[in-house]
């Protein structure tokens, strides 16, 4: 009897946090360390770190199971927060695109123009004039096609963006919100870094090690390989934090929210290096994958072999990308209204708030969500 009572007592938590990616792990850590709350953190995958999960493969090479993750941010508060759990390896991401049989920098910069068109543009001004001569101004920029055509014109749009985007999203850029291709700048200088952020680095021992440190707290109990559906009636908890797909939480009441998926083909090759940079993009539509990533560039690992990943976009599979377009946003708004009216649950993260957010934005979102929970606690609304 007393063992049963103990077991029952162990099943009472202040919070149940569903999903151990950035959103769930940050919230769990904050609640455990700042509110001294007892937290049950679960994930249906057998590991923490969500899509940022990395692990050594059979050859001992650290690779990213769900595709290449590179940390970059302009938010010092996010860096400060994560730095409690990791040291950093300086790393600036560079990407080449295979276009017309050549490897050229993407984002498009002066080097790209010179290489691709056999030009000798020497200054930012010359490059700006050249792009202006090709650009086709769009009066009201709404779609992902408008963004690029407006900046660089149709030929460069077709070479670098149309095919890649059609493959990646299963939609033409004209059917996607402008935010998708707006992620990629156009440059007139020779800066060939993929990101312009003030802080660009990789967690020194990898993402998973950082997550372990974040979530190994005496107030956090982790259960991995467990779905919310299978525990929700078994454990008692005061409040739920849900970071999975919001439509799934509500049993697809208004219909399915579209998420884009990917298939990853990981390969370990018996050679020290495969390509010159961490990522090479393949925008041509007749190539079935979008990009190839080689991890040793990201991690700095020394190894006689190398591991690479081909990404094949797919409509089926784990939900990786919310698809930014007006009709999907409208459907999400219905779920959001339902979420707002649902007591006892907080929705946070890329899948639950249906936002195409990077890791740092999700950390920022989770920290802001915690601050609101903190206020509610001081007003006596939360335990
Ligand atoms: P997730 O990481 O998706 O975590 C949600 C977790 O919830 C998952 O582990 C899932 O298993 C779990 N879950 C869902 N439903 C349930 C349930 N019912 N029961 C139990 N568990 C559940 N961002 C960058 O900043 N830089 C990059 O270079 C970058 N590259 C990316 C590359 C790819 C291929 C992808 C897909 C994304 C990339 N991102 C990148 C984005 C980054 O992955 C996300 O911003 C971040 O992982 C979102 O964290 P999250 O916690 O919201 O979601
Ligand atoms: N994109 C493209 N060609 C490229 C790189 C990006 O068309 O060479 C478009 C494509 O639609 C892609 C989007 O820009 O989905 C955003 O690219 P990013 O590299 O940020 O995508 P993610 O890393 O999120 O997959």
From TrEMBL:
Cellular component GO terms, alphabetical: cytosol
Gene Ontology MF annotations: flavin adenine dinucleotide binding; UDP-galactopyranose mutase activity
Enzyme class: isomerase
Entry EC no(s): 5.4.99.9
Pfam families from the UniProt entry: GLF (PF03275), NAD_binding_8 (PF13450)
Segments traversing the membrane: none
Domain of life, source organism: Bacteria
Stated family: Belongs to the UDP-galactopyranose/dTDP-fucopyranose mutase family.
Name by which UniProt lists this protein: UDP-galactopyranose mutase
Organism this protein belongs to: Sphingomonas piscis
